[in-house]
Amino acid sequence: AGMEGEDMQRGNLPEELLERVQKSEEFQRTTQEKSAEAQAWAVRRAQSGRAGGMEAVDLAERNCLHYFLQSKAAQHYCGTGMYMQHYMAQPSMRSPHVASYLAFFLSGPPPLTECETSILSAACFLYKWRQLVGQIFEAQILKLGRAYHSKYGNCLSHSKDSSVRISCIFGLSAALMEHHRRSTPFAGPYCEALEYRKDQIACIDGSMFRGAKYFSKLKIDLECLSFHNAENRKLCYVLARSGMYDMAKNNHLYISHF
Q1: What is the dihedral sign for C-alpha 81, 139, 110, 46?
Q2: Looking at the predicted structure, is the pLDDT value of residue 103 above 90?
Q3: What is this structure's pTM?
Protein backbone atom coordinates (compact mmCIF):
# COMPACT_ATOMS: atom_id res chain seq x y z
CA ALA A 1 0.00 0.00 0.00
CA GLY A 2 2.88 2.34 0.87
CA MET A 3 4.57 1.82 -2.48
CA GLU A 4 1.30 2.26 -4.39
CA GLY A 5 0.64 5.52 -2.57
CA GLU A 6 4.14 6.69 -3.36
CA ASP A 7 3.72 5.86 -7.07
CA MET A 8 0.40 7.72 -7.13
CA GLN A 9 2.03 10.79 -5.63
CA ARG A 10 4.77 10.63 -8.23
CA GLY A 11 2.18 10.41 -10.97
CA ASN A 12 1.02 13.88 -9.98
CA LEU A 13 4.50 15.41 -10.16
CA PRO A 14 5.48 17.69 -13.06
CA GLU A 15 7.61 15.84 -15.62
CA GLU A 16 10.80 17.78 -14.90
CA LEU A 17 10.43 17.26 -11.14
CA LEU A 18 9.71 13.55 -11.61
CA GLU A 19 12.90 13.25 -13.70
CA ARG A 20 14.85 14.99 -10.93
CA VAL A 21 13.47 12.60 -8.29
CA GLN A 22 14.36 9.58 -10.42
CA LYS A 23 17.88 10.89 -11.05
CA SER A 24 18.32 11.57 -7.35
CA GLU A 25 17.27 8.01 -6.48
CA GLU A 26 19.54 6.54 -9.15
CA PHE A 27 22.41 8.63 -7.82
CA GLN A 28 21.65 7.53 -4.25
CA ARG A 29 21.73 3.85 -5.28
CA THR A 30 25.02 4.40 -7.12
CA THR A 31 26.72 6.16 -4.20
CA GLN A 32 25.45 3.54 -1.75
CA GLU A 33 26.79 0.75 -3.93
CA LYS A 34 30.15 2.47 -4.38
CA SER A 35 30.50 3.35 -0.70
CA ALA A 36 29.72 -0.25 0.22
CA GLU A 37 32.25 -1.40 -2.36
CA ALA A 38 34.87 1.00 -0.97
CA GLN A 39 34.28 -0.19 2.58
CA ALA A 40 34.25 -3.90 1.64
CA TRP A 41 37.53 -3.53 -0.23
CA ALA A 42 39.14 -1.84 2.78
CA VAL A 43 37.81 -4.54 5.12
CA ARG A 44 39.31 -7.24 2.91
CA ARG A 45 42.64 -5.41 3.04
CA ALA A 46 42.42 -5.28 6.83
CA GLN A 47 41.55 -8.97 7.10
CA SER A 48 44.44 -9.93 4.87
CA GLY A 49 46.79 -8.04 7.18
CA ARG A 50 47.73 -5.46 4.57
CA ALA A 51 45.81 -2.63 6.25
CA GLY A 52 44.08 -2.28 9.57
CA GLY A 53 42.16 0.20 11.74
CA MET A 54 42.09 3.75 10.45
CA GLU A 55 44.42 2.81 7.59
CA ALA A 56 41.59 0.72 6.15
CA VAL A 57 39.20 3.67 6.56
CA ASP A 58 41.69 5.95 4.80
CA LEU A 59 41.80 3.51 1.91
CA ALA A 60 38.01 3.42 1.73
CA GLU A 61 37.92 7.24 1.69
CA ARG A 62 40.37 7.32 -1.18
CA ASN A 63 38.21 4.85 -3.06
CA CYS A 64 35.28 7.28 -2.75
CA LEU A 65 37.47 10.05 -4.15
CA HIS A 66 38.60 7.77 -6.99
CA TYR A 67 35.10 6.53 -7.92
CA PHE A 68 33.73 10.07 -8.32
CA LEU A 69 36.61 12.12 -9.70
CA GLN A 70 34.26 14.47 -11.54
CA SER A 71 31.95 15.25 -8.62
CA LYS A 72 33.04 16.45 -5.22
CA ALA A 73 29.45 16.28 -3.99
CA ALA A 74 29.32 12.61 -4.97
CA GLN A 75 32.60 12.02 -3.14
CA HIS A 76 30.99 13.47 -0.01
CA TYR A 77 27.84 11.33 -0.35
CA CYS A 78 29.92 8.22 -1.00
CA GLY A 79 31.79 9.04 2.20
CA THR A 80 28.55 9.24 4.21
CA GLY A 81 27.67 5.71 3.16
CA MET A 82 31.16 4.45 3.91
CA TYR A 83 31.22 6.00 7.39
CA MET A 84 27.72 4.80 8.14
CA GLN A 85 28.90 1.22 7.61
CA HIS A 86 32.13 1.88 9.52
CA TYR A 87 30.45 3.15 12.69
CA MET A 88 27.52 0.74 12.57
CA ALA A 89 30.01 -2.15 12.61
CA GLN A 90 31.62 -0.93 15.83
CA PRO A 91 30.65 -2.30 19.29
CA SER A 92 28.13 -0.30 21.28
CA MET A 93 29.59 2.52 23.35
CA ARG A 94 26.72 2.58 25.84
CA SER A 95 27.83 2.74 29.47
CA PRO A 96 26.80 -0.51 31.21
CA HIS A 97 26.52 1.03 34.67
CA VAL A 98 26.79 4.30 36.60
CA ALA A 99 30.45 3.80 37.57
CA SER A 100 31.64 3.65 33.97
CA TYR A 101 29.48 6.67 33.11
CA LEU A 102 31.09 8.69 35.90
CA ALA A 103 34.52 7.49 34.80
CA PHE A 104 33.70 8.78 31.32
CA PHE A 105 33.09 12.28 32.64
CA LEU A 106 36.23 12.17 34.76
CA SER A 107 38.40 11.08 31.85
CA GLY A 108 36.66 13.35 29.37
CA PRO A 109 34.71 12.62 26.19
CA PRO A 110 36.24 10.45 23.46
CA PRO A 111 38.48 12.29 20.97
CA LEU A 112 37.25 13.13 17.49
CA THR A 113 40.67 12.99 15.88
CA GLU A 114 39.60 10.49 13.22
CA CYS A 115 37.12 12.99 11.80
CA GLU A 116 39.26 16.06 12.35
CA THR A 117 41.99 14.52 10.18
CA SER A 118 39.66 12.87 7.67
CA ILE A 119 39.68 13.75 3.99
CA LEU A 120 35.88 13.53 4.13
CA SER A 121 35.40 15.17 7.52
CA ALA A 122 31.72 16.09 7.08
CA ALA A 123 30.84 12.50 6.21
CA CYS A 124 32.85 11.26 9.18
CA PHE A 125 31.32 13.70 11.70
CA LEU A 126 27.84 12.84 10.49
CA TYR A 127 28.09 9.29 11.85
CA LYS A 128 30.62 9.83 14.64
CA TRP A 129 28.34 12.35 16.33
CA ARG A 130 25.37 10.09 15.69
CA GLN A 131 27.20 7.36 17.60
CA LEU A 132 28.17 9.64 20.49
CA VAL A 133 24.87 11.50 20.79
CA GLY A 134 22.75 8.36 20.66
CA GLN A 135 24.84 6.00 22.75
CA ILE A 136 26.78 8.10 25.27
CA PHE A 137 24.79 11.29 25.73
CA GLU A 138 21.37 9.63 25.32
CA ALA A 139 20.38 12.42 22.94
CA GLN A 140 20.49 15.01 25.74
CA ILE A 141 22.11 18.36 24.96
CA LEU A 142 22.57 18.92 28.70
CA LYS A 143 24.84 15.87 29.02
CA LEU A 144 26.71 16.81 25.86
CA GLY A 145 27.25 20.33 27.22
CA ARG A 146 28.56 19.03 30.52
CA ALA A 147 31.08 16.78 28.80
CA TYR A 148 32.43 19.38 26.36
CA HIS A 149 31.50 22.56 28.28
CA SER A 150 29.53 23.59 25.20
CA LYS A 151 26.27 22.46 23.63
CA TYR A 152 28.17 22.43 20.33
CA GLY A 153 30.61 19.77 21.51
CA ASN A 154 34.17 20.69 20.61
CA CYS A 155 33.18 22.12 17.22
CA LEU A 156 33.73 25.77 18.15
CA SER A 157 37.28 25.05 19.30
CA HIS A 158 38.31 24.87 15.65
CA SER A 159 39.22 28.03 13.80
CA LYS A 160 36.48 30.14 12.23
CA ASP A 161 35.57 29.20 8.64
CA SER A 162 37.68 26.02 8.77
CA SER A 163 36.18 23.01 7.02
CA VAL A 164 36.66 20.92 10.19
CA ARG A 165 34.62 23.34 12.32
CA ILE A 166 31.83 23.60 9.74
CA SER A 167 31.77 19.83 9.14
CA CYS A 168 31.67 19.21 12.88
CA ILE A 169 28.63 21.48 13.32
CA PHE A 170 26.92 19.83 10.36
CA GLY A 171 27.37 16.35 11.83
CA LEU A 172 26.41 17.29 15.38
CA SER A 173 23.24 19.17 14.43
CA ALA A 174 22.18 16.21 12.28
CA ALA A 175 22.65 13.81 15.19
CA LEU A 176 20.76 16.01 17.65
CA MET A 177 17.93 16.61 15.17
CA GLU A 178 17.53 12.89 14.51
CA HIS A 179 17.12 12.19 18.22
CA HIS A 180 14.95 15.22 19.02
CA ARG A 181 11.56 13.92 20.09
CA ARG A 182 10.16 16.89 22.01
CA SER A 183 7.17 18.95 20.88
CA THR A 184 9.29 22.10 21.00
CA PRO A 185 11.48 22.96 17.98
CA PHE A 186 15.21 22.26 17.93
CA ALA A 187 16.74 23.82 14.82
CA GLY A 188 15.86 27.51 15.22
CA PRO A 189 16.97 28.02 18.83
CA TYR A 190 20.06 25.82 18.44
CA CYS A 191 21.34 27.09 15.09
CA GLU A 192 20.59 30.79 15.45
CA ALA A 193 22.50 30.92 18.72
CA LEU A 194 25.67 30.42 16.67
CA GLU A 195 27.56 33.66 16.03
CA TYR A 196 28.88 33.15 12.51
CA ARG A 197 26.86 32.82 9.31
CA LYS A 198 28.69 29.79 7.93
CA ASP A 199 28.20 27.98 11.24
CA GLN A 200 24.49 28.69 11.10
CA ILE A 201 24.22 27.42 7.52
CA ALA A 202 26.03 24.19 8.41
CA CYS A 203 23.78 23.75 11.44
CA ILE A 204 20.59 24.24 9.43
CA ASP A 205 21.87 21.92 6.71
CA GLY A 206 22.69 19.18 9.22
CA SER A 207 19.33 19.53 10.94
CA MET A 208 17.39 19.27 7.71
CA PHE A 209 19.59 16.50 6.34
CA ARG A 210 18.01 14.33 9.02
CA GLY A 211 14.71 16.16 9.20
CA ALA A 212 14.04 15.60 5.50
CA LYS A 213 14.27 11.84 6.09
CA TYR A 214 12.61 11.34 9.45
CA PHE A 215 10.04 14.10 9.96
CA SER A 216 6.56 14.87 8.66
CA LYS A 217 5.67 18.10 6.88
CA LEU A 218 4.07 19.31 10.11
CA LYS A 219 7.29 18.73 12.01
CA ILE A 220 9.34 20.43 9.28
CA ASP A 221 7.03 23.45 9.52
CA LEU A 222 7.53 23.53 13.29
CA GLU A 223 11.30 23.51 12.85
CA CYS A 224 11.56 25.99 9.98
CA LEU A 225 9.12 28.48 11.47
CA SER A 226 11.21 28.51 14.65
CA PHE A 227 13.85 30.64 12.87
CA HIS A 228 13.54 34.36 13.56
CA ASN A 229 15.75 35.30 10.64
CA ALA A 230 13.76 35.19 7.38
CA GLU A 231 16.80 34.09 5.37
CA ASN A 232 17.39 31.16 7.73
CA ARG A 233 13.71 30.24 7.59
CA LYS A 234 13.81 30.13 3.79
CA LEU A 235 17.03 28.12 3.79
CA CYS A 236 15.48 25.62 6.20
CA TYR A 237 12.59 24.94 3.81
CA VAL A 238 14.87 24.75 0.76
CA LEU A 239 17.14 22.18 2.46
CA ALA A 240 14.20 20.17 3.79
CA ARG A 241 12.75 19.91 0.27
CA SER A 242 16.10 19.03 -1.29
CA GLY A 243 16.33 15.78 0.71
CA MET A 244 19.50 13.89 1.61
CA TYR A 245 21.13 13.36 -1.81
CA ASP A 246 20.22 16.33 -3.97
CA MET A 247 23.12 17.04 -6.32
CA ALA A 248 21.90 20.61 -6.77
CA LYS A 249 22.50 21.36 -3.09
CA ASN A 250 25.50 23.55 -2.38
CA ASN A 251 28.06 21.37 -0.60
CA HIS A 252 31.03 23.71 -0.98
CA LEU A 253 31.32 24.31 2.75
CA TYR A 254 32.23 20.65 3.24
CA ILE A 255 34.06 19.76 0.05
CA SER A 256 36.30 22.76 -0.65
CA HIS A 257 39.13 21.18 1.34
CA PHE A 258 39.24 17.91 -0.65
Answers
A1: negative
A2: no
A3: 0.77
